[in-house]
Amino acid sequence: MSVLEHTTTIPSGSYAADPAHSSVEFSVRHMGLATIRGRASAVAATLDATGDQPVIEGTIDAASLTTFDEQRDGHLTSPEFFDTGRFPTISFRSTGFEPRADGTATLAGELTLKGVTRPIELEAVISGPGQDPWGNERVGVDISGALNRTDYGVSWNAPLPGGGLLLDDRVRLEASFSFVKQG
User: Fold this and answer.
1) Chain segment 81-128, per-residue pLDDT in tens
2) What is the pLDDT of residues 27-51, one digit of tens each?
């Protein structure tokens, strides 16, 4: 078994995410009691490391978001949540990459969700580079952070009988990409 080091340097080149080895997930507290987790099953992402700083771009098919509950997933596609009929994609484009001494990096960018584009700051951990058994050069990027869903117009909620609301406004994001060098 090979262990790759964490780095904040990415070898120059253009990369595409391997969809079979990449994921985007989210989680939100429900009733303050449990965490509901979800996943995007249709994700495309690129990493351009040909300039002064790496640029990561990604798109999610909003209708592919699943929490593994058919009724809840149907509600997520409705206008009360993601309104996938009008806003079929969720997108991200990085605008800054600042390495830190601990091997992580601050990844600044713009997230577009439900037609609203806002700046967001995330944490990134870069692994690699490494070569797969077929001779492809790969770089791993793990990204984490949080957003306030109401900032993007995703504000549906329901009051609880004892006070409080059904859903937390804070949504945690976790993504892991295996980028394959192109060309």
Assistant:
1) 999 999 999 999 999 999 988 889 999 999 999 999 999 999 999 999
2) 999 999 999 999 999 999 999 999 9
Q: Is residue 30 part of a domain?
A: yes
Task: Give pTM, 2 decimals.
Answer: 0.93
CA dist 77 and 182 (Å) reads 34
Name the token pair of 44.
């495309």
* Domain carrying residue 132: 6-181
Decide if 19 contacts 44 (C-beta within 8 A).
yes
ω before 129 within 30° of 0 (cis)?
Answer: yes
What region does 127 belong to: left with phi over 0, alpha with psi -120 to 50, or beta? beta
Q: How many CB atoms lie within 10 A of CB 48?
A: 17
How many structural domains are present in the chain? 1
